[in-house]
């Protein structure tokens, strides 16, 4: 094979690979996204359980109300009927918005996890870091899904997170940590549910999955 | 003031009275659990704390996390006793419900602790439905295929809820279940179940984030009685090998002898002819070794080795003569071993032997009738054997002692030998007279003198063939075949007997007669009885003077063989030997120490007529 032909062959291979990467079906993308969101929620649940194992009772009293989560302003369907009526792209944007809203708080959590006044601090720290990784990869994946879906508008809600400190004393920090984590747990469940609805809606060819 | 005080006292008295009666306000109820089967509705259950002896009513109140509005349970009946069912309309997701239960009776009420509930976290689906277990027959073997349906209420189709299934199998007698995760599929194939056994199957499910459902009712399945492929294969292999082993054993048994020979080759035992192992075992060695004795060993061949004894041995004194004679004789004879002086000489070299073998070079012609006595055959050594053997050099004496037999060997110097001579002295023979034996004439001459004709004796059979050279003392045979001048009336005598020279006729012929000849004249009888003649001396003219035993009866007689060389010895009874050499070169006459004449050098030439 001459040099020219070799070059042509390499280009063709690269193009095929590029197309194949982008040519990953929506089903597969959503499948992958669902898996990631599932893992996300599982991690948050285990973190919550770890924290609850040694949580002072006074902390529960001090716990802010869930409506105090920074993402509570986002309007999401509350039941199944509502959720099934939401179009896919809106579901996707909701999921992406929630996901984006938690990138900063998770950074704060991972930085604060190592100094928590908690016996399970190390485990919590490692899990928090893993949580952060998953969120980043899921965000990238949802980016692909969004691109794949050819949405006309990209209406992401902005959910800013202004808190840059969990508290001054260890108890408040622990309580705030716990509170943030609980907010994230709920939101991760929302994301997971939405994505799984999307997955089943796209997988018309594989009814056995849904 | 008084009223309130009085009221208080009265209330206190009433409570005491009531307590004495056994009634009290209700105990504190407790919410036990809340569950949502499909993430659409949910139900909460509580347990009463105690009714206090009075009829108590329970009420459940709840409020959402972001509202203060308190709602009471919409449905107390659907879910049964002490439960509250929240239908779809009343169920909100991702919202905390703050639920309390109030128990109240006539005396009072009691409120349970509040419980925070988020519906999405309390999902526990119903059990799967329509579980079936079917035996499927496959070429690999039968297996059980368990299949089920999703719980009716769960909406997995829209993806609202995702269920994961699990089944477990065991035999009735087993303690532990064998669990299998089926994932999201609604069937499962169970392998490696034992044949002819009954199995119990149960299935349950779980949402992706929730609680496991209850196990379904047991489904029974019976495995058929079958032989596994693997086991049947092993059975066949075993049977095959058993068969092969049986065949091999039978074959080995049949051919055990040859197998034994092949595996354990026989160790060669001692093979000694005549050696009997049994005798050896029995311990009688004499018998054993007796059998080893071979009869007839050492082989007494007819002629070969024994001739060693009969080789001539020369005395030292005579050696010069011997040497001289020998030198001459060598010219005449074709001797085979010219060098040895001692008795180890070959027969051909031996000047005492008249051997056919030595005639090989010459015209050994047909002496055909050689009859040698057996005795004689053993006496003479063949030329070859004697030469090769080189028999005892140091035993001249023995040879002497035994060398009674020595033939007259007359070498023929001329190439035309044997025809002329009337006497075919074929074989070494004992002669009564060591001279050429001639025909026997009727006029046997007996005299003290024997004239030896220096004749060429033609040994027609010089050749020393084995039977030819044999002869015994008693041998006396002349080969008369080659004799040109047939003597009248004389037939070749094959018998072995001594002959004597009767007389020498004018034709220079020795007339011989056998010793047993009845025609022997008496006068010479005594003299003719003599077998041997001794040489007294050798004259200068090469005349051999033979000595004879003096006998008065002996008549001096001599024959004049030749005019030229004949000499008459003057003395009567004196042995004289005329040696007529007609034209023959003078030859030395070998004389042996014992007086016997070695007549090998004698050339008796009979004038041919």
From TrEMBL, chain A:
The keyword rRNA-binding does not apply. Residues 1-23 form the signal peptide. Keywords: Disulfide bond, Hormone, Secreted, Signal. It is found in: Secreted. It comes from the Eukaryota. GO terms for biological process: positive regulation of cell population proliferation; positive regulation of receptor signaling pathway via JAK-STAT; response to nutrient levels. Its main location: secreted. GO terms for cellular component: extracellular space. GO terms for molecular function: hormone activity. The keyword Signal applies. Belongs to the somatotropin/prolactin family. PANTHER family: PROLACTIN (PTHR11417:SF5), SOMATOTROPIN,PROLACTIN (PTHR11417). This is Prolactin. It comes from Cyprinus carpio.
From TrEMBL, chain B:
The chain crosses the membrane at residues 233-252. Residues 1-22 form the signal peptide. Residues 324-343 have a biased composition (Basic and acidic residues). Keywords: Disulfide bond, Glycoprotein, Membrane, Metal-binding, Receptor, Repeat, Signal, Transmembrane, Transmembrane helix, Zinc. One of its GO terms (molecular function) is metal ion binding. Residues 25-126, 127-226 form the Fibronectin type-III domain. It comes from the Eukaryota. It is found in: Membrane. Residues 324-347, 360-425 are annotated as: Disordered. Residues 365-388 have a biased composition (Polar residues). PROSITE patterns: FN3, HEMATOPO_REC_L_F1. InterPro entries: FN3_dom, FN3_sf, Growth/epo_recpt_lig-bind, Ig-like_fold, Long_hematopoietin_rcpt_CS, Type-I_Cytokine_Rcpt. It is a single-pass type I membrane protein. One of its GO terms (cellular component) is external side of plasma membrane. PANTHER family: CYTOKINE RECEPTOR, PROLACTIN RECEPTOR. This is a receptor for the anterior pituitary hormone prolactin. The box 1 motif is required for JAK interaction and/or activation. Belongs to the type I cytokine receptor family. Type 1 subfamily. This is Prolactin receptor. The lineage of its organism: Eukaryota, Metazoa, Chordata, Craniata, Vertebrata. The gene is PRLR.
């Amino acid at each position: 094979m001459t040099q020219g032909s070799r070059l042509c062959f390499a280009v063709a291979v690269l193009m095929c690979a590029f197309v194949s990467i982008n040519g990953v079906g929506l089903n597969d993308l959503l499948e992958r996204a669902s898996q990631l969101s599932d893992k996300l929620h599982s991690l948050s649940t285990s973190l919550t359980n770890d924290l609850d194992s040694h949580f002072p009772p006074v902390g529960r009293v001090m716990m802010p109300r869930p409506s105090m989560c920074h993402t509570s302003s986002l309007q999401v369907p509350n039941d199944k009927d509502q959720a099934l009526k939401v179009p896919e792209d809106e579901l996707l944007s909701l999921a992406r918005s929630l996901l984006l809203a938690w990138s900063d708080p998770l950074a704060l959590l991972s930085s604060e996890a190592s100094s928590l006044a908690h016996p399970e601090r190390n485990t919590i720290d490692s899990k928090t870091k893993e949580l952060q990784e998953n969120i980043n990869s899921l965000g990238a994946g949802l980016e692909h899904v969004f691109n794949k879906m050819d949405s006309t508008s990209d209406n992401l809600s902005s959910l800013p997170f202004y808190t840059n400190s969990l508290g001054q004393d260890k108890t408040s920090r622990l309580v705030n940590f716990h509170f943030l984590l609980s907010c994230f747990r709920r939101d991760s469940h929302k994301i997971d549910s939405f994505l799984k609805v999307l997955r089943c809606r796209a997988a018309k060819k594989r009814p056995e999955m849904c | 003031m008084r009223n309130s005080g009085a009221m208080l006292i009265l209330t206190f008295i009433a409570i005491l009275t009531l307590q004495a009666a056994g009634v009290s306000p209700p105990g504190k109820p407790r919410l036990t659990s809340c569950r949502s089967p499909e993430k659409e509705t949910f139900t909460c259950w509580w347990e009463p704390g105690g009714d206090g002896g009075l009829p108590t009513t329970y009420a459940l109140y709840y409020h959402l996390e972001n509202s203060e509005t308190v709602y009471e349970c919409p449905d107390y009946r659907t879910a049964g006793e002490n439960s509250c069912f929240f239908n779809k309309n009343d169920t909100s997701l991702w919202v905390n419900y703050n639920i309390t239960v109030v128990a109240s009776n006539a005396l009072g009420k009691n409120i349970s602790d509040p419980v925070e509930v988020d519906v999405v976290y309390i999902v526990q689906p119903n059990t799967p439905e329509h579980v079936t277990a079917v035996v499927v027959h496959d070429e690999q073997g039968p297996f059980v295929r368990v299949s089920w349906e999703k719980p009716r209420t769960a909406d997995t189709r829209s993806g609202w809820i995702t269920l994961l299934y699990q089944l477990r199998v065991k035999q009735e007698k087993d303690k532990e279940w064998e669990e299998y995760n089926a994932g999201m599929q609604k069937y499962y194939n169970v392998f490696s179940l034992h044949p002819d056994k009954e199995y119990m199957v149960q299935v349950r499910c779980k949402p992706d984030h929730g609680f496991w459902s209850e196990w379904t009712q047991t489904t029974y399945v019976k495995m058929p009685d079958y032989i596994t492929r693997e086991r049947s294969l092993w059975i066949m292999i075993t049977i095959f090998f058993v068969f092969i082993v049986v065949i091999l054993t039978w074959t080995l048994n049949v051919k055990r002898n040859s197998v034994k020979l092949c595996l354990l080759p026989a160790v060669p035992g001692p093979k000694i002819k005549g050696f009997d192992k049994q005798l050896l075992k029995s311990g009688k060695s004499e018998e054993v070794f007796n059998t080893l004795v071979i009869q007839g060993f050492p082989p007494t061949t007819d002629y070969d080795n024994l001739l060693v004894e009969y080789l001539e041995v020369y005395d030292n004194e005579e050696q010069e003569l011997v040497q001289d004679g020998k030198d001459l004789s060598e010219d005449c004879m074709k001797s085979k071993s010219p060098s040895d002086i001692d008795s180890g000489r070959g027969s051909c070299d031996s000047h005492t032997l008249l051997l056919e073998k030595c005639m090989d070079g010459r015209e050994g012609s047909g002496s055909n009738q050689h009859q040698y006595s057996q005795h004689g055959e053993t006496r003479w050594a063949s030329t070859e054997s004697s030469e090769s053997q080189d028999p005892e050099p140091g035993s001249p004496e023995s040879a002497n002692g035994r060398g009674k037999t020595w033939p007259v060997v007359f070498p023929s110097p001329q190439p035309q030998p044997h025809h002329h001579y009337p006497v075919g002295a074929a074989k070494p023979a004992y002669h009564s007279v060591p001279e050429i034996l001639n025909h026997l004439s009727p006029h046997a001459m007996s005299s003290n003198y024997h004239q030896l004709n220096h004749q060429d004796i033609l040994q027609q059979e010089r050749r020393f063939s084995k039977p030819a050279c044999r002869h015994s003392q008693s041998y006396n045979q002349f080969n008369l075949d080659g004799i040109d001048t047939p003597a009248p009336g004389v037939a070749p005598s094959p018998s072995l007997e001594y002959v004597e020279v009767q007389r020498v006729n004018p034709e220079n012929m020795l007339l011989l007669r056998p010793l047993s000849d009845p025609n022997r004249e008496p006068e010479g009888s005594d003299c003719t009885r003599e077998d041997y003649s001794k040489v007294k001396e050798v004259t200068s003219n090469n005349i051999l003077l033979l000595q004879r035993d003096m006998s008065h009866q002996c008549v001096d007689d001599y024959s004049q063989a030749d005019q030229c060389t004949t000499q008459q010895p003057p003395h009567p009874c004196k042995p004289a030997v005329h040696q007529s050499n007609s034209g023959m070169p003078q030859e030395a006459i070998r004389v042996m120490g014992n007086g016997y004449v070695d007549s090998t050098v004698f050339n008796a030439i009979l004038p041919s007529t």
